[in-house]
Amino acid sequence: MSDTIEKVKCLIIGSGPAGYTAAIYAARASMNPVLYQGQQPGGQLTTTNEVENFPGYPDGITGTEMMVQLQAQAQRFNADIRDGWVTKVDFSGQVHKVWINGEKEIHADTVIISTGASAKYLGLESEQHYLKMGGGVSACAVCDGFFYRNQEVVIVGAGDSACEEAHYLSKMCKKVTMLVRTDKFRASRIMEERVRKTENIEILVNTSTVEVMGDGQVVNAVKVKNNATGEEKEIPATGFFVAIGHKPNTDIFAGFIDLDETGYVKNIPGSSKTNVPGVFVAGDAADHVYRQAITAAGTGCMAALDAERYLASKE
After folding, report:
1. CB atoms within 10 A of CB 116
2. Catalytically annotated residues
3. At what angle do helices 160-170 and 189-196 cross, to 10 degrees?
4. How far is the C-alpha of 138 from the C-alpha of 51, rounded, in Å?
5. Is residue 3 over pLDDT 70?
6. What pTM value is reported for the model?
């Protein structure tokens, strides 16, 4: 083996609640885990201002602070947390080969994929500004809807997830305006009917977002355009929710790991196991249903335990 190749017992690809939890369990099990944080250390939660639904934080906590604490907890047990991201893998043989930053080669006995998923946004400059400010743009109604109780919000999307999130918001918000870009929903009929029957949801079809407006710190309105007439108007709102889907960060595993039609890793039901022995998955890279920090952390625990049992079976 070349001096440039590093051999590790457990390699964790990606951070966030799933990766850090896997690192905590793996380190406590003397698996000497090495974790590469990826291009967004801490994952999606670092774009969330306040987290109030994670058990153990009665006063809430910022997403970034929570990830700093999880990282510190993993390092307390001597998990090796590193900067860098995986650019290539080869799981075709007995040895799991992984390349970091296109250069460093690692051979791992076990691999835990915790690369997460990235929310899709419209790409508007104003949208990205308020997203970074934590001032009213969100891609998760379940995570952030509580902060808009008794307020008026706008949500963009036309699929089942958008309908589900709009309905969720309607239970706590004074009014929910739903923007559908074309003249029809992509959602199932039952989900479409649910939002249409909800009194405080107003549906605007053939409508696109022009600009997310505010005072530079927080959102106060959304400028929209009717695609049929060209007419523009401003909708008062303190929250702007984007529900146009997520993209799992799994492209580099294609050809080795079984993925579904949208790119999520297929795990063996009831476990974190993938189709490749010794390779496991945790968090949003495999979860297109719940996408919560607490469920990601739970699957991180599962992946570490599954990896530990796999290693034990090889001894």
Report:
1. 28
2. 140, 143-144
3. 30
4. 13
5. no
6. 0.81
d(CA 77, CA 98): 24
Q: Which residues contact 169 (CB under 8 A, 6 or more apart)?
A: 141, 145, 148, 153, 155, 176, 241
Residue type, 139: A
C-alpha 123/C-alpha 94 separation (Å) is 42
Give the Cα-Cα-Cα angle 203, 209, 213 (nearest 5 degrees). 110
pLDDT over threshold 60, residue 60: yes
The model's pLDDT over 71-80, given as tens digits with 9 standing for 90+, comes to 999 999 999 9
**Does the pLDDT of residue 313 top 80, yes or no?**
yes
d(CA 60, CA 53) in angstroms, rounded, equals 8
Q: Tell me, what's the pLDDT at 41?
A: 76
The distance of Cα 134 from the centroid of its chain, to the nearest Å, equals 16
Cα 229 to Cα 15, 85, 205, 252, distances in angstroms = 46, 46, 12, 43
Confidence bin at 1 (pLDDT 50/70/90): very low
